[in-house]
Amino acid sequence: MRNISSNHPKARNRMRICRMTEGLSQKDLAFLLDIPVTSISRWENCSRAPGVYYAIGISVATHRLVDEIFSDYRHEWKDKIQQKRELLEESQKQDSKESNFIRSKKFNDNDNVKRYGKNKR
């Protein structure tokens, strides 16, 4: 389970609505998933999020797709992933520049060995 930084009322309400639509109490769902009732409460109040294993269990118990219950997190993840990809691309460009510099340095050193018979470092 993970802490959630911000409150997601739609996801909270959707999970609760899906559970209640199936006629399940928090206690019933906790029994089906073999977990404490407090976990269900935390998930519905968005103080924690279920892991993939339990998200799948919730989807099976409520006869819904995981995406139907937790799709509100998709937008948040899209933004985070986009920001991280930009950082990753920037880092890869920097690594590429450093790699090219190192390769050119090695080429010049090898060239010096051929010319002078020794490596000038």
Please explain how this structure is put together.
The chain has helices spanning 9-21, 26-33, 37-44, 52-62, 66-70, 72-116, and strands at residues 2-3, 48-49. The protein is mainly α and 121 residues long. It has two domains: 2-70, lambda repressor-like DNA-binding domains (434 Repressor (Amino-terminal Domain)), CATH 1.10.260; 76-115. It has a two-stranded antiparallel sheet. Helix 2 crosses helix 3. It is elongated, with a radius of gyration of 27 Å.
From the 3D structure, determine the CATH topology of the largest domain. Answer: 434 Repressor (Amino-terminal Domain)
Number of strands: 2
Shape: elongated
Structural class: mainly alpha
Low-confidence stretches: 1-7
CATH architecture verdict of the largest domain: Orthogonal Bundle
> Which oligomeric form is depicted?
single chain
Mean pLDDT: 79
Number of domains: 2
Which percent band covers the strand fraction? under 5%
Rg over C-alpha atoms, rounded to the nearest angstrom: 27 Å
Give the CATH level 1 class of the largest domain.
Mainly Alpha
Strands ordered across the widest β-sheet:
1-2
Look at the structure and name the CATH superfamily of the largest domain.
lambda repressor-like DNA-binding domains
- Outline the biggest β-sheet: 2 strands, antiparallel
Percentage of residues in helical conformation: over 70%
- The number of helices is 6
List the helices and strands and how they pair.
Elements: E1 2-3, H1 9-21, H2 26-33, H3 37-44, E2 48-49, H4 52-62, H5 66-70, H6 72-116
Antiparallel strand pairs: 1-2
